[in-house]
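User: Here's a chain of 111 residues. Predict its fold as tokens.
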Amino acid sequence: MGFERACVLADVPQDAPLAVTLAGVDLAVARQGEEVFALQDQCSHAAVPLSEGEVVDCTVECWLHGSTFDLRTGKPTVLPATEPVATFPVEVRGDDVYIDPTRTLNGVTPS
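Assistant: Prediction complete.
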């Protein structure tokens, strides 16, 4: 399958993820500066959407219990979450964001 167009870059705010579904995979697309990241849109601790959280210092915070996940690696950086979330390859092509929902960068299988 490979990369699919996920959204327009301008639709991804700097301080909050954007929820996108590609190939049946729910994703949270986030920006930090000029970089764009994609991770599974589900906290590994409480199964709530990460796209409803905030982006700060290259992490996304789960709004329910305050766990944060590194946008680059998917690893939790603040408890109570202890398991990483899947991260996905992203390409920015012009004004569009493309994501490959069929392979993860960190080896975590999306739930």
